[in-house]
């Protein structure tokens, strides 16, 4: 199973490279780093860094996963998945892992350019990957609801807004108790605390476990829905 997932992840990364997804991440990172380093004053750049860390692996990852699925639907490659040894859950893990790797790399580069290289990068990498994986899962789930990417972009706006609400608590604009129940809260609040240097390693592990629990529960639900659609032939139509 692990070999199939790794092989599928490499294949997804190759397909995404052909679709210029990594180039999009790299361009966005370059723009963000350029703005934070040369336009925004240093103190403000440090303050708003969590917003960009949430946007890169989270929102870009969410859209990249959905775009990849629509790309496969358009090229009818889902038919190959239907008859391959790769199970639907393994395919989903590979797709989400590939997107999470790109998002994590983007976030680490942005953080290192703005805040420097220090011990926080270890915890940051773990939190970013878990958050990017969960955000990609949301993107995949939303893409099951809409028949094409333009409708997805419009229909997913409310979900994206709700997904980023924990940023209000991260900047003390709302009580944490109001947003902590959201699946995205663990990742966003952990990223904010890491940027401030307030997060210890045990606390980081706790946030990662909380995000992982949400991701595990959501993954089971989405994978079952996707497998049911494959069996019914809906994805192949």
User: N-to-C terminal Cα separation, in Å?
Assistant: 28 Å
Point out poorly predicted stretches: none
Strand content: under 5%
- Helical content, roughly? over 70%
* Shape field: globular
- Rounded radius of gyration (Å): 18 Å
Biggest sheet details: none
Quickly count the helices: 12
Please state the average pLDDT score: 78
- Whole-number total of structural domains: 1
Number of strands: 0
Q: Structural class from helices and strands?
A: mainly alpha
Series of secondary-structure elements, N-terminal to C-terminal: HHHHHHHHHHHH
Short description:
The protein has helices at 2-18, 21-38, 42-75, 78-83, 88-115, 120-143, 149-155, 157-163, 166-170, 176-179, 185-196, 201-232. It is an all-alpha fold and 237 residues long.
């Amino acid at each position: 199973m692990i070999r199939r997932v790794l092989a599928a992840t490499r294949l997804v990364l190759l397909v995404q490279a052909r679709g210029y997804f990594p180039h999009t991440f790299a361009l966005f990172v370059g723009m963000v780093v350029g703005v934070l380093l040369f336009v925004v004053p240093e103190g403000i750049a440090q303050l708003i860094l969590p917003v960009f860390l949430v946007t890169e692996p989270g929102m870009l990852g969410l859209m990249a996963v959905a775009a990849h699925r629509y790309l496969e639907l358009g090229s009818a490659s889902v038919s190959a998945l239907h008859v391959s040894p790769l199970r639907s859950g393994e395919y989903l893990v590979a797709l989400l892992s590939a997107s999470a790797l790109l998002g994590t790399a983007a976030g680490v580069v942005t953080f290192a350019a703005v805040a420097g290289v220090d011990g926080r990068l270890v915890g940051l990498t773990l939190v970013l990957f878990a958050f990017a994986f969960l955000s990609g899962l949301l993107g995949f789930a939303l893409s099951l609801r809409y028949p094409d990417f333009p409708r997805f972009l419009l229909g997913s706006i409310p979900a994206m807004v709700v997904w980023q609400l924990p940023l209000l608590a991260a900047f003390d604009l709302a009580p944490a108790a109001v947003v902590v129940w959201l699946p995205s809260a663990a990742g966003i609040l952990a990223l904010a605390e890491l940027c401030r240097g307030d997060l210890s390693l045990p606390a980081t592990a706790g946030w990662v476990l909380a995000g992982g629990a949400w991701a595990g529960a959501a993954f089971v639900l989405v994978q079952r829905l996707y497998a049911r659609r494959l069996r019914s032939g809906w994805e192949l139509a």
